[in-house]
């Protein structure tokens, strides 16, 4: 398709609401953004300066706690500033950059969650071989694979989008540049493009979610062979993982599977761009005794050094 672009900038409509509500939402989203940074920073530092870094599960959690603030930073600062700004424009190049960065970092998060499920599967279903299967070299390879797969996913999104012509309205009915709201502005038939975007985002999210669900079902089945204490500890860990997976994947699937003209997905997008990254630190620490003990040791040591 030959590309004809008359559009040099887009206007982000954002979340429609009264002016008074925008101030309230500004405060709420700003607080959420700060909570994302503080919560994930605490986890990142705790794992970095404790023995937990040697354990594969916490090694993946360390990466996830780094990715969450990076991922939300592609979206949330713009969302916050637009709530109190009268000018909500974003350049064409800026929009495409946000699209690429958002899908890249979201893709890395998805495959880190898959790696965490793989780690729990081996730990519970094949405990005798855990040390040899989930070694540091394989963990590094899984993280590298996450970045490579996410890069190809996001570059495919970008290349498909920049080939489409934008020559008419430039108001994006969303608070970010994403494939589905952008498709509504394309001045050409988008049937094939919609199918490609659904396959690239929606079906990938759905298949990954089903694989994760299947892995946790197998894990629960294999827990029958463990002792009561082993079952309790494994269930506590797996419950945290399942909550994170549900919070991230269900809104993603709801957003990307339906065709672009059937659903306004702004509200669903808030869950995986703001709510899930904010709750991840709480989910992974509140029911995790090992993590809480490490946090007490690391931060008491840091505070003692600070006030000496």
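Sequence proposed for the structure above (308 residues):
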């Amino acid at each position: 398709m030959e590309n004809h672009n008359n559009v040099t900038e887009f206007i982000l409509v954002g979340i429609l609401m009264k002016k008074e509500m925008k101030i309230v939402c500004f405060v709420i989203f700003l607080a959420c953004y700060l909570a994302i940074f503080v919560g994930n920073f605490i986890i990142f530092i705790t794992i970095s300066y404790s023995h937990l870094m040697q354990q594969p599960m916490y090694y993946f959690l360390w990466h996830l706690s780094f990715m969450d603030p990076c991922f939300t930073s592609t979206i949330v600062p713009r969302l916050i500033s637009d709530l109190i700004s009268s000018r909500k424009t974003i350049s064409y190049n800026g929009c495409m950059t946000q699209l690429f960065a958002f899908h890249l970092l979201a893709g890395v998060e998805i495959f880190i969650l898959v790696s965490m499920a793989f780690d729990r599967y081996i730990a519970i279903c094949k405990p005798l071989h855990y040390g040899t299967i989930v070694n540091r070299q394989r963990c590094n390879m899984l993280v590298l694979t996450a970045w490579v797969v996410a890069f190809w996913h996001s570059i495919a999104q970008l290349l498909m989008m920049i080939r489409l012509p934008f020559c008419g309205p430039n108001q994006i009915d969303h608070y970010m540049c994403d494939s589905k709201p952008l498709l509504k502005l394309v001045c050409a038939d988008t049937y094939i493009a919609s199918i490609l975007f659904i396959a690239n985002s929606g079906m990938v999210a759905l298949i990954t979610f089903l694989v994760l669900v299947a892995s946790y079902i197998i894990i629960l089945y294999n827990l029958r062979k463990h002792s009561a204490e082993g079952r309790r500890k494994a269930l506590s860990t797996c419950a945290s993982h399942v909550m994170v997976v549900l919070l991230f994947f269900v809104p993603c699937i709801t957003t990307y599977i339906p065709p672009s003209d059937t659903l306004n997905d702004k509200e669903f997008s808030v869950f995986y761009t703001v709510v899930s990254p904010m709750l991840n630190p709480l989910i992974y620490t509140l029911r995790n005794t090992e993590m809480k003990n490490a946090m007490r040791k690391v931060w008491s040591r840091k505070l003692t050094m600070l006030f000496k």
